[in-house]
Amino acid sequence: MTKAEFIDRIAADDRIGSKKDASDAVEAVLDGIVDALKAGEDVNFTGFGKFSVNERGPRQGVNPRTGERITIPGGKVPKFSAGAGLKGAVKGS
Questions:
Q1: Can you give the pLDDT of all 93 residues of the chain as single tens digits?
Q2: Where are the chain's structural domains?
Q3: What is the pTM of this model?
Q4: What CATH class is the domain 43-93?
């Protein structure tokens, strides 16, 4: 599902007034999550899941063209851990 398809699905909900309102709501939620992660905060939706930032250390890799060993720098990466409610809904239980 693309972002546009997701917005269409949200717009079809009776609690949302229009497609513009749905688009604004989706953008606001995504922007809020990104801003919190940039600030080093976790975002936890009980029953749904947790967004967090993990620190990844440098690691060794191989350049596929030359076969030369290279060091891939570490950095921060986003992480999502699904909550029990989401896991149960996906499993169908």
A1: 999 999 999 999 999 989 999 999 999 999 999 999 999 999 999 999 999 999 999 999 999 999 999 999 999 999 999 999 999 999 986
A2: 1-41, 43-93
A3: 0.80
A4: few secondary structures
